[in-house]
Amino acid sequence: MWDLTSTALDTAKLRGATYADARSMHIRQRDLTTKNGAVGTLAQSESIGIGIRVLANGAWGFASTDKLTREGVSTCAAQAVSIAKASALAKRCDVKMVPENAYIDSWQAPLRKDPFEIPLESQLDLLLKADAAMRKVKGVTLTETDMQFRKIDCWYASSIGSRIHQRKVISGGGIVATSFKGTEIQKRSYPNSFGGQYQLAGYELIESLDLLRHAPRVAEESVALHSALQCPEKTGTLLLDGSQLGLQIHESVGHPIELDRVLGQEANFAGTSFLTLDKLNNLQYGSEIVNVVADARLEHGPGLGTFAYDDEGVPAQYTDVIKDGQFRGYLSSREMAQLVGLSRSSGTMRTESWNRLPIIRMTNVSLLPGSWDYDDLIADTQDGILMETNRSWSIDDRRYQFQFSTEIGWEIKGGKKVRMLKNPSYSGITTEFWNSCDAISKLSHWTLWGTPNCGKGQPMQTMGTGHGASPSRFRDVRIGTAFANQ
Amino acid sequence: MKPAPKSRNSSNQASAKAAELFPERELRRIVATVLRLAKSTAAEETEVHVDEVADALTRFANNAIHQNVAEQGLTVSIRTVADGRTARATTNRIDEDSLRAAIEASLSLAHSQPKDPRLLSMLAKQRYRRVNRFVKPTAALSAEERARAVRRACDLAVKNGQVAAGIYSTGQSQSAMGNSRGLFASYRETHSEFSITVQEGPAASWAKANSADVRAFDSQKLAVRASEKAHLAVDSRELAPGRYTVILEPSAVLDLVGFLFYDFAATALEDKRSCLNDRMGKQLFGQNITITDDAYHALQLGAPFDGEGLPRQKVLLVDRGIPRNLVYSRAAAKAAGKQPTGHGFALPNEYGEAPMNLVFTGGDSSVDKMVASTDRGLLVTRLWYIREVDPYEKVMTGMTRDGLFLVENGRVTGAVRNFRFNQSLIEMLNNVELLGPAVRATGEEAFEMVVPAMKVHNFHFSEVTKF
Q1: What's the CATH number for B24-214?
Q2: CATH number of the domain to which A166 belongs
Q3: Residues 6 or more apart from A322 whose CB is under 8 A from it?
Q4: Domain final position from A177, A198, A227
Q5: Residues A133-155: pLDDT tens digits?
Q6: Cβ-Cβ contacts under 8 Å, A358 against chain B
Q7: What ipTM does the predicted assembly reach?
């Protein structure tokens, strides 16, 4: 692979590039699903190719190919330079980047059990057993389970002299029970909705989820929701479980801090951000107990945003995003850092595959744990609603106004969970919401959740991001808005 | 190891010209190679899908190109059947060793599972209706031509004191499928798209077009439209949330009604996750709502065959507000005692099928006429981040974006801050007062469909945002 990346860089330089980097990637994936006791999808795939990014005439060009011959790569590099020269026809200034060191390194994400070495039969057996356990519950009308595994090898080389190989293995899985009755479809998922839990880990993640133990509960709750009271419409106290809070962080902190959005580069598609540059170090983003970091280092945990180097060769870093409630930092690239006067990229350029350009993405954007024991948090709540497991999510294109709904809610009265609520939802304005946070559970309740399906960029790229969170409490939140006046 | 076929861009000359696809005979050769290799394995039946793409996309923001990409790739996806079991393996390596490995991987996956009692034998040779959706001027458009068009759009924004962002993309793709029972199908198309957001201070507006033929839209006219609407959107005022009459431009209609497509899948009803469960044959929508699925419609794109190799049929889904028919994959049709309609996904999958070429019947109104007929309402350019809140009542939430305008006494009188909506699609399609002509609409939430602009009363806006 290094021969091919060298060919790419040499050709790019010969054609007039002033900077070039090349990513050769080999991606293997396995997908397993079941539905109503039968195997649904059973597939595996591999994809290998090279993406070449160049600067020429002060503008960017990128081309990719799956023709991994010297001729194919050379042609691709020449095409990238030609595209850069075309870009220069519509440039306003030359692209500049903050400096970065060259690195020669090889890194492999730790894992205990390679999921591709686990027999398919045992993986399917687990899913089919979980599926069967859910179907035993009367009233369940649809059962679904899934596992997905990815193994990604990336050979990165750049014209400043970096040569970095990284291997990452991602595992994920979950179960869902759905119940249709009358005029309602109710659903419960475990450990999270939309595919379950994902981490930079091996098959040990799947084993730790204990799907079989949770399958009956998930199924029973999906049926019980039909008999539950409707979540009321009111302004009141809201408690979120860790998985829903993870998505709340993703949408209302993770995306607004992306500097490409802030600087207008996503204005046509993903949107911009309310976090204009004047707000850095000058905005009370949340209450004083709110501390959010962007941390791609392994020390943070095996998240979907964990790596050793980003996809433009910058080492993984820790960045304070919100410190004691104050807005402190953005996610940046070498180019964006230059544009706003930072001395270094925060190392968040990531690409979905060899045929996509690296763009600024979340790494692990996490809410640091607080001091509350979860039981004490419930006991301390006189009148509130606990919401668990995301059902829908939506936020405006500048990341101010959001609305989430969850699969299940629980009314809390006098410090106790007293009854189940169906169709829970809440909404708000980002900074008002985070400033209303008055309790965060401690480390023992903290989980590094994986969001495997974050879409951004044109052409669209799907990226996995990590979000550590523990159950937390928010005051004076608008509750029940999604179903009001329907 | 057999050498790969000669590269399509074998010249080592620097070029930003559009890439070329393999000739169809090369795809036939790959299919034949896989079928030949599979004969010496345990596969009782073998199916091959070959997909090739050559796309380019020029992206601009802050009145300049900031990303400019091209990709070319080919994948071979192989499904084998052995002893009542099936599975799929996909690779983008086309040497014989890699193809043989993919066949073996597919067989290994297939053997790992129980027998599938719903598995049907592969289809024999089929006859397909020809469609011509490959337009040479689209395929030939170069990076320089895209850059010049972008430059013109950006210069307009600069001249008007505005900021432009968007994309100009062109590309071509082809697919072929064949199986060990003699079926072979192939299809190629071109695609092009121009999308522009123009910002003026805190205000913004947007225009977008998409076609197989890059000559079907004028990028500069789209830029002018977005620029003019952005100027109109300056000085927006806040209105109280509530129920309003809305005039939804085709993109806004598309991004809402696009969420209905999977509800017409027979498998979705069998799984009881469709909003049409217990509602087929009943007056569910207004009588002015008629929906067909028609892959052959002049404004549609897509292959004339489905993932199982069956010819796509035109299906009347909703007739004057009454859901009449569903689409069926072969397995779903057998389970329901119906005929398959050519809407199946490639096997194996758990979703069955879906109509992918929705066409709404339009009317004789227009956005201008709708505005003129409205005493008080809102003109909606575009919707954003739409998600399903209630799957049975089909309540959707989302935001307005890039141009929300107040209509008073038959004319646009100013801009309004963006709203969040929580709106049942079923209710909405009962409240349609006027329909424009059906056009090929493009948005960001749903794939392209043929839909009209709509004037709808009692549309529910629940909250307002800060811009």
Answers
A1: 3.30.2290.10
A2: 3.30.2290.10
A3: A253, A285, A286, A290, A291, A292, A328, A434
A4: A227
A5: 999 999 999 999 999 999 999 99
A6: none
A7: 0.96
